[in-house]
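Hi support team,

I'm filing this because I wasn't sure whether my run with norvaline finished correctly. The job status page said complete, but I'd like someone to confirm that the output block is well-formed before I use it downstream. Pasting the exact inputs I used:
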Amino acid sequence: MKKDLLNISDLERNDIGVIIEKSCWLKQLLKDGQSYTPLKGKTLGMIFDKSSTRTRISFEVGMFQMGGKALYLNSRDTQIGRGEDIGDTARIMSRYLNGIMIRTYEQSLVEALAGEATIPVINGLTDLLHPCQILSDLFTISEKRGSLEGMRLAYVGDGNNVANSWIEAAAKLRFHLALACPEGYDPDGTILRKGKDEAGDMIALYRDPYEAVREANVVYTDVWASMGQEHELKERIEIFSAFQVNEDLLAVAAKDVMVMHCLPAHRGEEISAEVIDGPRSVVIDQAENRLHVQKAIMEILM
Ligand code: CP
Ligand code: NVA
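And here is everything the job wrote out:
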C-alpha cells in the first residue's frame, strides 16, 4: 500500500528514527561527493498555493540529486486554480507522477488529495501542520546534540502550523515541550488536547515566555503572522511584543541553549538580530538539513 506523509501523528516512533538515520547517511554521501540515484526515472509533482524558498528548492534539488525530476505546479497556472475537482486531479496526477508534494491552506485538501491518489502525497505545509519542517528539525537537533534524549524544547510565539507539528512530535517521541503563546493565539485545541492526553506533563502551555524557556536546551520560534495572515501583522506585533526571542529571554535558558527558527525570519519581531545572527543560532544548518531530510522522505515513500 502507498504511504503518505500528512502529519507526524500517523508516523510510528520508529519511522522517525529511520528518517533521521537515512538523512544522516544521505548528507554524508553528498559531502563525500558520491552520486546516489535511487529515484532515477521518477517524477515528483510539487503543488504550491503559497510561497516557498526552502521547501521548493530542497524538494527540487533533492529529486535532481537522486536521479529524478520535480515539476513545479503553481495552482494558479493549473486547472486546480480554476476549481477542477481534487479527486480528478489526484487520479490523473497518479497516472503521470510517482509522488506529490503539496503546500496549501486547508489540511483537509491535502487529505482529500491523498485519499484519491494512488501515489504518495507529502504535506509541504498547511495552515494546520508543517511535518517535513519538524522532521528536519529533529534531525538537526540529534545531529547537534548527539541524540534527542533529555531534550527540553521551548516554542515561543504563535500557536501555528509549526507549533502544532511540534506538539505531535513531542507526543510521539516524549520529549519536554513548553509552549508560550499569548492568549487567543494557542495551538490547535484538538492537537494540544490529544498531545497532552498522550504525553501528560511532557507538554505544557504557558502565557509567560520566561517560564517556558527556563532550562530549555532548544528555543524555537516562528513568524508572528503566517502566510495568509499578513493583514493581521500590525495588530499581532503589539500582541506578541513580549514574546520576542532575545538575549534577555535566553538568559533563563540552559547554558548550552540552541536557537532555531524554521525561516523566513523577521529580525526585530519574533527574534532579535543579535540572537538569530549570534553564536547559539543554528538556523542556516537547520535550513540546509531540509534538503537531506526531504531526500530521505522521498526515497522512503517513493
Ligand atoms: N521553512 C520553510 O518551510 O521555508 P519556505 O517557506 O521557504 O519553504
Ligand atoms: N508559520 C509559517 C511557516 C513558514 C515556513 C507560515 O505558515 O507562514
